[in-house]
Each structure stands twice: as structure tokens, then as C-alpha cells.
Amino acid sequence: MAYENLDEDLVNELLGDGRASLRSLAEKLDVSVTTVSNHLSDLEEEGVIEAYTPRVNYDAVGFDVTAVMQLKAEGSALPEITETLKDHRQMISVYEVTGDYDVIAIGKFKDTDDMNDQIKSLITDPDINQSNTSIVLNTVTENEQFELEPDDSE
Q1: pLDDT tens sequence across 29-80
Q2: What beta strand segments (E) does the chain contain?
Q3: Do 90 and 122 reside in the same domain of the chain?
Q4: How many domains does the chain have?
Q5: How far apart are CA 93 and CA 105, in angstroms?
Q6: How confident is the model at residue 2 (pLDDT cuts 50, 70, 90)?
Q7: Beta strands of 25-144 (E only): which ranges?
Q8: What is the distance between the alpha carbons of residues 89 and 123, in angstroms, rounded to a whole number?
Q9: Which residues contact 4 (CB under 8 A, 6 or more apart)?
């Protein structure tokens, strides 16, 4: 295998099996274990690979209500609001966005009562000017990652 696309190929293999051993990756990519180890270390240092973590099916463990919150923040309070949301254990994604709202946060809850209690406690912040919460009816796709394409400019 050519080394020119080794990083992309390595990432793509890990997307398929994040628990793959260095030896099995080396065999699939037709390179040495040392080469795989060195490239993985480089990808980790560069921040391309951030973590090796399981993908949890929250529905299977009782968190089967997903809510999408849109929030308008009082100007300078945006960092504090996003930090509060980020630190809330059931918020799985928090984004600062453009458009009508300043923040979009996605949370997982056990039921609508749990969601209602927690969202009310979060949006009582006086620096939140407006909120809109939507409950997800059907998850079509979630937490998907995509394979990397080789960079032809190299």
C-alpha cells in the first residue's frame, strides 16, 4: 500500500473498528506495526483522532427522549451559557450558531418529565432571552462519521 494515503486509510479502518489492534491494522494496510503506531501517534498529536470511545445507544439504556433546544442569549453571556450546557451531563451536543438563535443544544432524557424538569432549570437563566425546544419523534441517523477521502493535491 502506498504511504501517500496511509493516514486517511488508517482513520477509515478505525472508523470501522475503533478497537482494532495495531497488528491487525498493519496487516490490513500492508505496513509494519511500527509504521501504524507512529502514524497513530502523529494523528493523535495533531488532534485528528481525539479519542477512542464506545458509541452508546442511549435508547437502550433508558434515555429515549431527545430534545433539540434553540436559545437566544444576552450578548456577553454566550460563553457562560454554552459552558453551562456543555457541563450538563445529558447534553450530548452544544453549538454556537448563526441565524435566529445563538445556541443549539441536543440532550437525551429518560422521559418527558425528566426533560421538562431539566430544560426548565436550564432556561431559567436570565441571560437566555428566548428558547424553542423540539422533541425528536424519529431518529433517522445519529452520531455518524464519514470516511476520509485521499487528498489528491499531495
Answers
A1: 999 999 999 999 999 999 999 998 888 999 999 999 999 999 999 889 999 9
A2: 65-73, 91-96, 103-109, 128-135
A3: yes
A4: 2
A5: 6
A6: low
A7: 65-73, 91-96, 103-109, 128-135
A8: 16
A9: 150, 154
